[in-house]
Amino acid sequence: MQGHDWNDLKYLLALHREGKLTQAGRTLGVSETTVARRIKTLEQSLGTTLFLRSASGRYEPTDAALHILTHAETIEASNAALREVSGESANGASGSVRISSVPIIVNRLLVPGLAALERLHPSLTVELVPTSFNLDLSKREADLAVRFARPSEGGLRTKAQKLGELSFAAYAASFISPDQHAELRWITYDEAHLDLPQARWLESAAKSSGLRANLKVVDAETGMQAVAEGIGKALLPRAIAAGDARLREVEQEGDAKYPTREVWLLSHVDQTSRLSIKAVKAWLSSLDWV
């Protein structure tokens, strides 16, 4: 096996994470031709094939590549930690941390709390990714993920920390009189999201009362906006809705208990030594998740 350039490993990681030469090149700021050339050079130096192109056009890693990727991720994390140590100053942690979570958490909890993080670490950059999909930490689609419910996958490469629990309650628009709350229709979720606790509760309430709004949503952020517009009432996280002047909590009817959702923080085990990751995890833990 010939000697090889360790810089080629970042091309290996990018193509693995993106799956296509064009996207990998865009991530690295180079052309797809450059990515293909560097991958070919790495394959020649290692004496093995690293990717096979699937029928869909994606580049899938071979067994040899998967073995090398584990070491490449460790080197990547070590380099990031070294850069942060060399750039550390009286201004605290530096570098960039990418966080993914559902839109309502990103927009209503993380964004309002960023000022406190910036005061502590003015040289730290945070990238927020509002998405209802679970991004792959092993592919570095995100450095940290804040998710509802205990994670059921990720294995030994993922660390999980419970941040707290969000309690839900029924809310209506503040301009609607409480006398009218009982006649308001329930905003429910679409069929693809009926596995969510709040979606099941709303579906049951809509069926038993016969009050179903002509709107179905896929996430709490959309539901919150619909409630504020007076379209109907829905379950929303108290920690978020209670501070919104557009909303008013509806007095609970009947004995059905409102659901709660656990909030978990996921990180990759190779990232634990990064000062920026430690700083952001401490900030996330300090937020009010009740």
Word description of this protein:
There is one protein chain. The protein has 290 residues and is of the alpha/beta class. It folds into three domains: 8-85, Orthogonal Bundle (Arc Repressor Mutant, subunit A); 89-153 and 266-286, 3-Layer(aba) Sandwich (D-Maltodextrin-Binding Protein, domain 2); 166-261, D-Maltodextrin-Binding Protein, domain 2 (3-Layer(aba) Sandwich), CATH 3.40.190.10. The protein contains nine helices and eleven strands. It has helices spanning 8-18, 21-28, 32-46, 63-87, 103-120, 197-209, 220-228, 238-241, 275-286, and strands at residues 51-53, 59-61, 95-101, 124-130, 144-148, 158-173, 186-189, 212-217, 234-237, 247-249, 260-268. Strands 3, 4, 5, 6, 9, 10 and 11 form a seven-stranded mixed β-sheet that branches. A two-stranded antiparallel sheet has the order 1-2. β7, α6 (197-209) and β8 (212-217) form a beta-alpha-beta unit. α1 (8-18) packs across α2 and α2 packs across α3. The longest helix is centred in the N-terminal third of the chain and has 25 residues, at 63-87. It starts with 7 loop residues before the first helix and ends with a helix. The mean pLDDT is 86.
What is the name of the CATH superfamily of the largest domain? Periplasmic binding protein-like II
Assign the CATH architecture of the largest domain: 3-Layer(aba) Sandwich
Helical amount: 25-40%
Distance between the termini: 56 Å
Rounded Rg: 23 Å
Number of domains: 3
CATH topology tier name of the largest domain? D-Maltodextrin-Binding Protein, domain 2
- SS-based class: alpha/beta
* Unreliable stretches covering 5 or more consecutive residues: none
Please give the largest β-sheet. Answer: 7 strands, mixed
CATH class of the largest domain: Alpha Beta
Overall average pLDDT: 86
Shape: elongated
> What's the helix count?
9
The helix-strand sequence is: HHHEEHEHEEEEHEHEHEEH
Count of extended strands: 11
Strand content: 15-25%
